[in-house]
Every structure is written in structure tokens, then in C-alpha cells.
Design goal:
Helix content: 25-40%
Strand content: 15-25%
Structural class: alpha/beta
Low-confidence stretches: none
Mean pLDDT: 95
Number of strands: 8
Largest sheet: 8 strands, mixed
Strand order of the largest sheet: 1-2-4-3-5-6-7-8
Distance between the termini: 35 Å
Number of helices: 5
Oligomer: single chain
Order of helices and strands: EEEHEHEHEEHEH
């Protein structure tokens, strides 16, 4: 898991990168929670998401948004952080020129940034959005949502109430050809305290299902 530094719009960005075993493997970008509330690329959920992709043969990258850890710059209320995420994807693509696709995964604030990146980059074909803050940020840009994905949240989330995430899912589900799966983790709060295992089980099952479908399509 080599530490890497790449140049972002606000200066140096600190990241961890795991190369893929195959040249044309997909890329995964993993985005951490809110920088002003302790979010970093070493957050337990971000770490586990990263390795969920690594274990499935992706070229995976997680990084610190501007102003976090050794990344330069300062918090920019989402606009600059979106630019950081785009720079991470650019960097990953520059060293994986044969990568055929990309996935984006994010937790809370990182989920909001990830969904915005999804709208801007047509090569992103799948997403995992954990506890997307549908009541705190505007998600109306997802019209239409260009890729299928998974939204996971807890039924005891006091930061982002269950009804707000369900409302977002219902809105996205109406789009033709796009499949949005929703998983509700019983007993989980916004931070998935003592519920990380069932969270990651849902993520793993979804990834395996999607990747197996893609492999079948490739071999027919």
C-alpha cells in the first residue's frame, strides 16, 4: 500500500494507492467524511472500503482532502474537495491508461462529493454511497443519475434521518435503466458504531453481484 503524493488544485495531496494486478482493471476512488469533523483517509470505514476494492482486483486510491493530514490547502465547503476528487481520478487514470472504467465510493460528506463527481465523469459506472447527507446538502444535481449503485444507511441515524435518504433513493429509482439498491443497516447510527461489519457485508455482497454480472456479460 504505497504512500503517494500527487498535485491537486490547492497543492500537494497525500494519498494511498494500491495498483491492480491486471492492466485493464477498473479504478476505485474512495472519499472520506467531513474534514472539519475528523474525517481522514484512515477512517475505519474508508480503510475497509478501500480494501474491498483492492481484494477484487481494482486499482484503488484513497486520499486526504485539502487541509487534511499532509494535503495542502484549506477546507473549501465542497467545491475544492470536488476538484481534489477529480484530480485523484486524473492521477489514477494517468498511471492506469488501460483502465476500462471507474467506481466511486464515499461516506457521508465523501458520498456527496462522490455523487457530484459521478455526474461529471461518464467513465464512472458504479458507486457506493454510505450515509449520504441528503438533508444537509442538495442532491438535486442527480437528474438524471447516470450510473447504478448502492446507497447504505442506518435506521438509527440521527444526523441524516432515514426518511431523507429513502426520499433520495425513491427519486433516483424512477430513472429508466438505472438500478439503485438501498440497504438499511438495523441499529446503525450515522457512524455505524459497532455496525461496521454488517455495513461492509452489504458492500461486499453488492460489489460481488455487480462484478459477477459484468464478467458474465464479457464472456458471452
Amino acid at each position: 500500500m504505497p504512500e503517494v503524493i500527487f498535485t491537486g488544485p490547492a497543492g500537494r495531496i497525500e494519498a494511498r494507492y494500491h495498483p491492480a494486478p491486471k492492466k485493464n482493471a477498473p479504478i476505485a476512488i474512495v472519499l472520506h467524511p467531513h474534514p472539519q469533523f475528523g474525517g481522514t483517509m484512515n477512517h475505519q470505514i474508508i480503510y475497509q472500503l478501500y480494501y474491498a476494492f483492492v481484494h477484487r482486483g481494482f486499482a484503488a486510491i484513497r486520499f486526504n482532502f485539502r487541509g487534511v493530514g499532509r494535503s495542502q490547502g484549506s477546507f473549501d465547503h465542497g467545491q475544492g474537495e470536488l476538484s481534489d476528487a477529480a484530480s485523484a481520478l486524473d492521477w489514477a487514470q494517468s498511471i492506469n491508461p488501460e483502465a476500462r472504467s471507474c467506481w466511486i465510493a464515499g461516506f457521508s460528506f465523501g458520498a456527496w462529493i462522490g455523487m457530484q463527481l459521478l455526474m461529471r465523469r461518464p467513465e464512472i459506472e458504479g458507486f457506493i454511497s454510505i450515509a449520504p447527507p441528503a438533508n444537509l446538502y442538495d442532491f438535486s444535481f442527480l437528474a438524471p443519475c447516470p450510473s447504478s449503485g448502492l446507497i447504505v444507511h442506518g435506521d438509527k441515524d440521527a444526523v441524516v434521518p432515514h426518511k431523507d435518504v429513502t426520499g433520495l433513493v425513491e427519486k433516483l429509482k424512477t430513472q429508466k435503466g438505472i438500478v439503485i439498491e438501498q440497504k438499511v443497516i438495523p441499529g446503525a447510527n450515522h457512524f455505524f458504531d459497532s455496525r461496521v461489519e454488517p455495513l461492509m457485508q452489504s458492500v461486499s455482497e453488492y460489489l460481488d453481484k455487480r462484478l459477477n454480472i459484468e464478467r458474465k456479460v464479457e464472456t458471452t
